[in-house]
Amino acid sequence: MNRKTIFSIVLTISIFALAACASVTATPTSSNTESIPIASNDLQATMPATTSNTDPNVIAPTAGTTVSMDPSLACSGGKTTASTTLELTEGPYYTADTPERANLYEEGMPGTKLVITGYVYDTNCQPVANAWLDFWQADANGEYDNSGYTLRGHQFTDANGFYSLTTVVPGIYPGRTEHIHFKVQAPNGPIITSQLFFPGVAQNESDGIFDASLLLPIQETSAGLQAQFNFVVSAP
Ligand code: FE
After folding, report:
1. Among 12-16, 86-90, 125-129, the least confident range
2. Residue 125 · residue 178 · CB < 8 Å
3. Distance from CA of residue 217 to its chain's centroid?
4. Angle at 84 between CA 82 and CA 86, to 5 degrees
5. Distance from the CA of 23 to the center of ligand 1, in angstroms?
6. According to the model, what pLDDT value does residue 2 have?
7. 88 C-alpha to center of ligand 1: Å?
8. What's the CA gap between 228 and 115, in Å, rounded?
9. 175 C-alpha vs ligand 1 centroid, how far in Å?
């Protein structure tokens, strides 16, 4: 081999080494919009044609729309049993008697808009109609409205057990990772109080309350951030 050939080989190896380093350093960061898990399209489900929600800000599935259902969702993929949703602490900021509304987003509100949809099931994976869901959370700056009802609201599932929540991605406040609080209850059943979490947030690892079973599978769509989450409750 002459000097030119050796130089070419060394140059080629260097380029490959640099490319490998670049791909390693391009791992997700703490921003929840930069580490979106890839949704599985293995399982398809047809959403109900209508929902009881008439709020124009709420993104509801249209008739016959086929959406991907994450197979990790409780009661998806033909499962016939499920454990109840993990209960976690209520925290200090719950306010009772929230307004009934599926849309907590208000025009001009800071933060990234997010729509969460899903179903409430019983432990036999039967949909629970008229289940009560109450959501509350910090705003994008990590602050709760403790005197009013901003980012607080309750709703009821429709006849298919379906719900849809429109809100924003919450901010972080000292000692906690990003989370949305909720209570869910079948009619006359026990209340489950817990919290939903966001993937790819660095603070998840240092948050003593965080549990991966309550991670929202966030997807970036043309309509904004969306996630599906099914709740499982004990029915009386
Ligand atoms: Fe909180």
Report:
1. 12-16
2. no
3. 5
4. 125
5. 36
6. 53
7. 11
8. 8
9. 10
Are the beta carbons of 82 and 75 closer than 8 angstroms? yes
- Structure tokens, 218: 């966030």
182 alpha carbon – ligand 1 mean position (Å): 10
Write the pLDDT tens digit of every residue in 97-133. 999 999 999 999 999 999 999 999 999 999 999 999 9
Domain residue spans in the chain?
Answer: 37-233
Rounded-to-integer distance, Cα 190 and Cα 185, Å:
6
The answer to whether the beta carbons of residues 121 and 187 sit under 8 Å apart is no
DSSP string of the chain, one letter each residue: --HHHHHHHHHHHHHHHHHHHHHHHT---S-TTS-PPPPP-SSEEEPPS--S---TTS--PPTT-EEE--TTSTT-TT----PPPPP----S---SS--B-SB---TT-SS-EEEEEEEEEETTS-B-TT-EEEEEE--TTS---SSS-TTEEEEE--TTSEEEEEEE-----TT--SEEEEEEE-TTSPPEEEEEE-TT-GGGGG-SS--GGGB---EEETTEEEEE--EEE---
Q: What is the CATH number of domain 37-233?
A: 2.60.130.10
The conformational region for residue 200 under phi > 0 = left, psi -120 to 50 = alpha, else beta, is: left
CA 165 to chain centre: 10
| Count of CA atoms in the C-beta half-sphere (13 A) of 233 | 28
Measure 143 CA to ligand 1 centroid, in angstroms: 9
State the Cα–Cα distance between residues 196 and 178, nearest whole angstrom.
8
